[in-house]
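#lab-general

N.A. 3:47 PM
ok so I finally got the sequence cleaned up, no stray characters, all 372 residues accounted for. can someone with queue access submit it? mine expired

B.Y. 3:52 PM
send it over

N.A. 3:53 PM
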Amino acid sequence: MSFSQIDQVEIAQIDIAPKVRRTDAIQAFVTQETVLVTVRCSDGSAGTGYTYTIGTGGSSIVALLRDHLAPRLIGRDPQQFEAIWRDLFFHTHATAVGAITSLALAAVDTALWDRNARVAGLPLWRLAGGAKPCVPVYTTEGGWLHLEPAQLVEQTLAAREDGFQGAKIKVGKPRLAQDMQRLGAVRAAVGNDFELMVDANQSFTLAEAIRRAHGYATLDLAWFEEPMPAEHVAAHAQLLASTSVPVAVGESMYHPAQFAEYLRQGACSIVQADVARVGGITPWLKIAHLAEAHGMAICPHFLMELHVSLCAAVPNSRWVEYIPQLDDLTSSRLLIQDGCAQAPQTPGLGIEWDVSQLKARRKFDPIVVTRT
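B.Y. 4:20 PM
back already:
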């Protein structure tokens, strides 16, 4: 039996401006550096994957792919994605675990899954498990930190009218009273039948996180996200032991072992693995199943166009986060019905790239790696 081999790897980068002004307690979302990888195989099949940054590091990801990862793909069987992922990870072990390496791995891994799903004639969510066809969706797009209470109320009410089942509000104003004023106004406006989440983007110390959590507890929140720097696992365990508010973590973690340590220490309530930041679909699924084994939900960060399929693939997903970002580059759109994101039915990742827009917006001519 002959197997298909990867003959060519193409690397490109497209920068995308945010749809709205996006600010949180530690940063502003300047631009999405979107790095795409397309693998082309000897049987004529192909798949495209991608990764991203929010303003810095895109050129480093491109260099890592060009110089170290893409050449090792040539001649490989694309269906051996586990072997490929481990080989690439250990080939770059001196720079792992880390954001740039994981983001580069994700571009490759998602391309392989796209190719394999297309060859199988299956949408990603079915190939990866097929747990359910839709997942509830909440929005973050109207909850940025710079917005005044009246704007937050207006945009959250509009989100509820648009059918969203929840909304996330950024926190981390200089004083707790300022956070409470903003959150209290929104809760009073939307009532108790609409979920509210808050996100501190790692901005608090342990003492301040405990203090704020006691204040937030009066608002019946779905979760308190990234209260402290992700490396402070024990501090998260202390926080969780001191509050009834669920604690969510994961967008700033880059390997399944980091999630395993949080679960071992009882340091979180909700897992928020980001498919790009953990290195792709292959490790994301492991994290989701690890969370399931601990009786915990997975509610991934950002990248709704990919995460809708991954959430549909596993039984313990609870939410898809709505932040539109790929509209300018794709002809496909996230379909929302009755407050739930619907899993795509087309083979592959469910992302249909607009080839003309990719060509018009790319930062440089595509880098093509082939057999030497």
